[in-house]
Amino acid sequence: MDGPRGNSRQTLFVWGANSYGQLGLDHKQDVLLPQALKEFAGSPKTLRNVAGGGGHSAVITDAGELFLCGQNKNGQLGLNHIEDVLHFTLCSSLAGFPVVQVACGWDFTIILTESGHVLSCGSNSFGQLGVPYTPRGCSVPQKIESLKDKVVNIAAGLRHALVATENGSVFQWGTGMVSHAKRSCQGKMIPSFLRAKEPCKVTGFENIQMKNVTSGSYHAASLTAEGELYVWGSNKHKQLVSKDDFLLNPQKIEPHYFLGEKVRRVWNGWTHMVAQTGRQCFSWGWNEHGMCGNGTEANICSPEPVSALTSGKLFLIGCGAGHSMACCYFSS
Fold it and tell me: Does 2 reside within a domain?
């Protein structure tokens, strides 16, 4: 999360589905209008990162503290028990290990520490924890020992996860994409990184330096330091800008789709994508609920500028399953 600094104070607002207490409001009723969380209302602590999963939520403060709440039947909150939690609770097992990023899958959590180590907790039924495989979940964050290089960025899909390392490599694990790949690519060899239950290097980036990763439900993306965007996985709603139903290997989205500008940042919804260049915001993919922001509900097969955001300075974007959010500064 990037936002204003200085003497400003942040307040965390929450709304929407709350069946497991994932809004942190001490109840399980859905909330139709944004409500401020008392723990973070006017708090001097800066919120560094927020993330939401299938039924759980996570927040990181500038001090590196990780707070979680919501569904916990698989131990995805990392609190050493499996009871749902109705308010944001500190993950005390990480004391002394400042957290810089958190990513939430459907029923698991991936955690990146300041030292570049990655930990995971929750369900492991698809190998999404990246540890020696066991179908049992884990209720305490455990280090993924096989990741030897320093990690700088993490992402979680529905039942898979991926990381970018300091040396520019990308690793993926979790078998959540495999069934889609097999249906769409019958007779073709499925790459090892789509079938792995422990971190496996994503092929196709051998001579390319990747700087970050992001993921939708069944697709993934990675951005190079030079602003080139690569995508792979399910293309059911043409969110990968390809004619193929599934991309087994990373494929670059050509720069002309972004009017020749370099991509600075990218975000993924369930099946749509949003990218920011130096001057514009682009969106594409599934658009049934209008989350691509072009005023229609028709799917968009290639990046289109979001005209409503062209006059402001964009500093924060978020994507959900069927919605998008953007925070901008506008000149007075």
Answer: no
